[in-house]
Amino acid sequence: MKRHLAIRVILFTMIFSITFLGIINIHGRIKENSLEKEKNLDKDYVEKLAFQINSTSFNSIINTLESLEKQKILQSHIESGNRDRINDLIYSLSAIHHDSIIYIMDLEGNVIASTPYNDEGDTFLGKNYSFRPYFQNALTHDRVIYPAVGVTSGERGIYFSKSLSLDSRLQGVIVIKYNPLILEDMLSNDRSLLISFITNHGVVFLSNEKNILMKTDHKLTDSEIVEISKNKQFPLDKLFPLGEWNENEKVIIDDTLYNSFYLNIDDVGWRVLSLKQADAYSIHREDTSFFIQIIALILFLFFILILLEMRIGKVRKAERKAKKFQFIIDQSPISILITDVEGNIDYANKNFFKTTGYSREETVGMNCSALRSDYHDREYYSSIRNTIEEGGIWSGELYNKRKDDSLFWEDVKIYPLMERKGEMNQFISIKEDITEKKAFMTQLEKDASIDEMTSAYNRKNGLRQGQNLFIQAQKTHTPLTVSYIDINNLKIVNDKQGHDAGDKLITTVSSILKSTIRGSDILTRLGGDEFLIIYRDMSREASEKVWERIQEKFAQKSTPEVPISVSYGSVEYDRARHDYLDDLIKEADEKMYANKREFKMNFCNETTSTA
Asked: 336 near 329, Cβ under 8 Å?
């Protein structure tokens, strides 16, 4: 079908071309255009050039700077000094404007983030440009566009700058240095006109004639010379006055008479000047023989045929690649979603249907909010929305809901899809079901932190938790009490009743301790028959009342076969004596052992008297 269409296009082209060539030969050579028409053509060309600059070059950068008003993340990172995140963001911007250099200055004019300005990777970090007008004016104006020669790089550039503020507080200035070589490429397309860019300071900054660069369209005054020298915008030895002219008037430059035409570039505040020699001849074309024209037409059509065949081959190859890519995405073990800016799903792969239980028909057009569970609060979802709407990439975990209302964990990354103009039109989400992995990690954390027999904290994790409470007590000057506990006669129970009875004694003591203290207190099994209680925000006197309740429960659970008896020592944190948590534990341990010795003496006396 495509081949038949190509043949029809070729036949139509042949008929049209032969008819057109016949008309050319009937009418002879093309009549010379009038000077007025030629002047209009020049004007159309300059207007097209100005429109191209506004729409494709400068306008893109201006839109980027305007959108930075919403870049609260970038501004907050400047306020907090998060240099790594700032660099990530400006490197992302430099990917959009690949021929530009982007850097950020603080309120003192010091560069705090910069993309490279040469192939060696050199940046402007640490430089101070507080004296440059594009920095000074950006602090008091909406945005500034200023041509300049770089102090560090020595290269000409067009500087677009804008202040960055957070909650009406200035944070700094962001600068995008645009490479003028791109504009010079535009100017080099046509040499029939002398075209120059006149800045809002009257300086010819770009031209398709190199000898006119850095000249002015008026004679420099003393104040202008002082201003240019102060701002270091242009070397004085490269600035020469050209003389004044008015739009659509004949002017003489270097003894040559020119017709002139001005056009303003509104977004930039510059002007495009076109000049053409007043005695230049009009464009014309000589007649060629009909035979030569037919041969040229045949060669042209043959070339078109080859191009069409190549194009069709490329289209088919691209279609095969697209189908292969589609197959890879559809068979991916992770879920992939594409949504519009409102969160409505435009595309989902097979793994999404498998994970959530929704069908393809149910999914397309469905809003992502249908997957939300009640686990996360509204602020959490707002942070996701704010990040991606500001052009950032959000990465994190979501506890989502399947079609059958069962819940599952997903590791999610959401990327904004940007158009060339910088507009956001879609989001892509890459999601992985991590429910089993998360349950496994939770169990690992529990196994690593909990004593298996008693369900109290193990020694390592309990001391780490206690250290956190100790540091908090130091900072807030709140009370903290440590009790060291040792079970009496555990060895005797093990020897007489067996180790099962000894284990039961340990778990009974642990259960009573855990059920009596508060949830904010820390119970740790140090090992064997030793426990540690760290009472948060509690004096030693208050902890004694807790200990009285513990003793009452011991008495209730105690039996003649397995009596419950413990020795303990309690110490309250004293800033003058305890520099570390270990100091508290050591002192509590010593008190516990003093009680232990007293218990053993009494136990021995009772045993002797009984005997």
From this structure: yes
Helices marked H in 413-569 — which ranges?
435-449, 459-476, 490-497, 499-516, 540-557
Q: With contact defined as beta carbons under 8 Å apart, do 341 and 328 qualify?
A: no
Q: What are phi and psi of 494, to 5 degrees?
A: -60, -40
Tokens of 534: 């760290």
Q: How far is CA 200 from CA 66, 272, 602, in A?
A: 21, 11, 101
Name the residue with tokens 């043949």: 7
User: Quick one: 593 exposed, middle or buried, by C-beta within 10 A (0-12, 13-18, 19+)?
Assistant: middle
CA distances from 11 to 124, 301, 378 (A): 60, 9, 64
Q: What is the mean pLDDT of residues 569-592?
A: 92
At residue 431, the 3 state secondary structure works out as strand
The pLDDT of residue 78 is 72
First to last CA, the chain: 114
**Structure confidence at residue 574 (pLDDT):** 92
Q: How confident is the model at residue 160 (pLDDT cuts 50, 70, 90)?
A: confident
Residue 576, sorted as left (phi over 0), alpha (psi -120 to 50) or beta, turns out to be alpha
Whether the Cβ atoms of residue 171 and residue 80 lie closer than 8 Å to each other = no
Task: Specify which of 6-15, 378-387, 413-422, 568-577 reaches the highest per-range mean pLDDT.
Answer: 568-577
Tokens of 4: 């038949």
Residues 6+ apart with CB under 8 A from 510: 453, 454, 455, 456, 523, 525, 531
* Encoded amino acid at 78, one letter: I
**Burial class, 398, CB count within 10 angstroms (exposed 0-12 / middle 13-18 / buried 19+):** buried
Q: How far apart are CA 517 and CA 507, in angstroms?
A: 16
* Cβ proximity of 226 and 237 under 8 Å: no
At 318-341, the pLDDT tens digits run 666 656 656 666 667 788 888 998
Q: How far is CA 320 from the centre of its chain?
A: 34
What is the tens place of the pLDDT at every residue in 446-500?
666 788 888 888 888 889 989 999 999 999 999 999 999 999 888 888 888 888 8
At residue 388's C-alpha, the angle toward residues 382 and 394, to 5°, is 85
Say which residues have a Cβ less than 8 Å from residue 267's Cβ, sequence separation at least 6. 54, 58, 59, 62
Quickly list H helices, 126-175: 133-136
Main-chain phi, psi angles of 492, to 5 degrees: -65, -40
Per DSSP, the three-state class of 590 is helix
Euclidean distance between CA atoms 548 and 542, whole angstroms? 10
- Three-state secondary structure along 379-414? HHHHHHHHHHHCCCCEEEEEEEECCCCCEEEEEEEE
Sheet holding 270-277, edge to edge: 204-207, 194-198, 270-277, 256-265, 250-253
136 Cβ neighbours under 8 A, 6+ residues apart? 130
**How many CA atoms, within 13 angstroms, populate the side-chain half-sphere of residue 320?**
6
Q: Which residue type sits at 11?
A: L
- For 335-353, write each residue's pLDDT tens digit: 888 899 888 998 888 888 8
Q: Phi and psi dihedrals of 96, rounded to 5? A: -75, -45
Which among 214, 213, 250 is positioned nearest to 234, based on CA atoms?
A: 214
Question: DSSP H helical segments within 401-458, as ranges?
Answer: 435-449
The yes-or-no verdict on residue 564 having pLDDT over 80 is yes
